[in-house]
Design brief:
Layout: H1 14-17, H2 24-32, H3 39-56, H4 62-80
Helix pairs in contact: 3-4
């Protein structure tokens, strides 16, 4: 799992193994620019981040273990969120008010 996009100088095989990279800074930029249209879109990027972590870092390594812990904390927080509502489902009938 990466906070920033990885530099090929330090991990030359990363982009050969991970075909769809994701990092936390990219997620932050997307969040700040309102690029996520739903919580599920955010969740999909997080899942991709974790999947990439496990793909590149073998089980038993410190980075793999950190990815497992991050996923565990994320799941605990995700479950505790209030139910998500679809903003397009909200209908205000101004004529009746």
């Amino acid at each position: 799992m990466a906070y920033l996009a990885l530099d090929e100088k330090f991990v030359p095989d990363y982009y050969k193994i991970v075909k769809n990279p994701m990092d936390l800074s990219k997620m932050r930029r997307k969040f700040d620019s309102h690029a996520y249209t739903s919580a599920q879109d955010f969740r999909a990027d997080f899942d991709l981040l974790i999947s990439n972590c496990f793909l590149y870092n073998a089980a038993g390594t410190p980075v793999h273990a950190a990815g497992q812990r991050l996923r565990q904390v994320f799941e605990e927080k995700w479950i505790a969120l209030p139910p998500l509502r679809d903003p397009s489902a909200v209908h205000l009938d101004l004529e009746e008010s």
